[in-house]
Amino acid sequence: IFSSRLVIIGFMLVAVVFWFRLIHSLYDQHVGFFSSLLFITSHMVVRYSRVTMTEISALAFMMLAIYFFHKSTITGRISNIVLCILSLALSLYARLILLFLVPLFIIWLLMEKPVRKQSRKVVCLLSASIILSLVPLVILTLSLAKGNVAWVFQHPGQQFSLDWLAAYPKVLWRLQLAHPVFLLSMLGLLAALVRRGKRELFFLIWILLLYLELIVLGPADGRYSIYWIPPFCLFAALVPKLFGTRALKISLLLILMGASGFQLYLAAKMTPEYIEGYEEAARTVVDARVGIVLYSASFDSGYFVFFVRKYDTEKRTIVLLSDKILATYKLGSVV
Asked: How far is CA 230 from CA 10, 38, 62, 68, 244, in A?
């Protein structure tokens, strides 16, 4: 448990450090600081940084891919291109929903006029490497996750219903950003649309492509949209820079500081979700020393597995979770 938490903390540090470096290089240290602070204090980011799941690692690989993509478009160095490709491949294997990064990178490269020699080299290497790296992933997905693939196509025509279109914006408002931060991000986003700055355009396309992907997937677990939190935090942090007069800039900066402090306060108050009875259930199972136990919980945060490990000092109990790959029709071949 302790070692797995250390890994998640490590990935979280990677994500926020490279996000800060990216925004610092594009804007300045003040925008980098506030966007990073808002990012790491987001309710959903804090929540998933406390559990051992792939969301935080996928965020870290995504940040690495975007950072080295940015560096490669400027320098054209092979080392940056290789690191971008490697990070992109790892991000896709961590979370296939990050597939939106591929069209994001390609669109951004094609928008450069004229297309520079470095960009052409990046496009060729990026395209070839993506195809090669995705072949095993496509094979695994089609063979082991047929139900997931079929689920995507079960509701044709519903993608443009109001419920589907509003599902993930509601998640952003309710579960991801504190309300003052959400309002600032909307203000910054609208200002960016009016100003049509090239730097902001990249992050607008980022949000749009992920949103389109989420619409195709349909309303599901809100954590699928965790990957658009960084650009929304950036737009909130940009608000003081996107407005003209000095007095207004100072006022908006004070509001941003207050909103950041409020979200930090909410993050500090968060407590892990817990329901009584996990420890008793785990101790009963371990002490009974029976062969097979069927365990069902309406809410499972991993505490049952934690307490089984705590009381099973002989490490003889195996817990199989009926989730993800262990629940496929090829269970026998996996086990």
From this structure: 18, 8, 11, 16, 24
